[in-house]
Design a protein that fits this description.
- There is one protein chain.
- The chain has 11 helices and 10 strands.
- It is an alpha/beta fold and 287 residues long.
- The strands form 2 sheets. It has an 8-stranded mixed β-sheet, sandwiched between helices.
């Protein structure tokens, strides 16, 4: 039985991702007819049709979806092998970290502190959306993704590193004496996390328990922006104190009330790897 031709597999993967023979041929610098012949050769080798040709669109069959899953695994393993062996020959090791764009910078710094400043370590830090970061993690372009909420599915492992209490934080001038939490929430304008966040869902449950109608000054999906708005005196922010640690220490901002039942978790998301990055393993143990 002849062996599988990995060039054919690479061409198949390109067409599957582009869903177009023409676009894939342009990306591969091949003539469409030549690429089509390579796909037919792979289909004959496997004994299965891999695509339904719907006009110019190439749609994966069930066999095609299975083949694509195996192709992704094969090429990811190859990329991991190359990356691992290249790192083994370097004097400086590399840690590639992705962080959700809205995540607390102070938390990121705390997680990475054990390797920061080491002359034998280069840290590559990227921020982005969850979809972008998980895609790069799955392709092994990243070693870990730091996030406040774990992914809902897929072949990912979420390590719960820590959780922080959530408080009302703001300018000292916005805190009017000794009042109850319900009175403070009802009286002050609030800077709240975005409606789709898990933290906001917990806060809304607290609001319903207290039976309050609130004045919302801003809804923000970025903790760094919440911090800036709190510093501007726009309102009281609902966030973990770690986000504004420096401002609390200087007295610029004040923490008034811990919000009962609300915590902000922090996760490190990874994928199973045959050659895990030893720097990451050490950070996870430390965390």
């Amino acid at each position: 039985m002849p062996e599988l031709n990995y060039h054919h597999l690479r061409y198949f993967r390109a067409v599957a991702r582009a869903e177009s023979l023409t676009r894939a041929a342009e990306a591969l610098n091949l003539a469409p007819s030549a690429l089509s012949a390579q796909i037919r050769a792979l289909e004959q080798r496997l004994g299965q049709d891999l695509f339904d040709r719907q006009g110019r669109r190439m749609v994966l069959t069930e066999a095609g979806r299975i083949a694509l899953a195996h192709a992704d695994t094969i090429f990811a393993a190859g990329e991991e092998l190359v990356a691992t062996l290249r790192e083994a020959g370097r004097g400086q090791r590399v840690l590639r970290v992705g962080a959700l764009a809205t995540l607390s910078r102070n938390f990121q710094l705390g997680f990475l502190r054990p390797v920061l400043g080491r002359k034998d370590v280069e840290v590559i830090l990227r921020s982005g959306s969850m979809a972008e970061l998980l895609r790069d993690l799955g392709s092994l372009a990243l070693d870990v993704v730091l996030t406040s909420e774990p992914p809902s599915g897929g072949a990912f492992v979420a390590h719960r590193l820590a959780e922080q209490p959530v408080s009302l934080v703001g300018k000292p001038s916005l805190f009017a004496g000794r009042v109850t939490l319900a009175e403070r929430l009802a009286a002050a304008p609030l800077i709240l996390p975005a409606p789709e966040s898990g933290l906001r869902a917990g806060f809304e449950a607290l609001r319903e328990r207290l039976g309050l109608t609130l004045e919302i000054a801003a809804e923000v999906d970025d903790m760094a922006m919440m911090r800036l708005l709190a510093r501007e005196g726009v309102g009281l922010a609902v966030l973990p104190p770690i986000v504004v640690r420096d401002e609390l220490a200087s007295g610029e901002l004040q923490e008034a009330d811990r919000l009962p039942g609300l915590v902000q978790p922090f996760h490190a998301v990874t994928v199973p790897r045959r050659f895990p990055n030893p720097l990451l393993q050490a950070l996870l143990r430390a965390a």
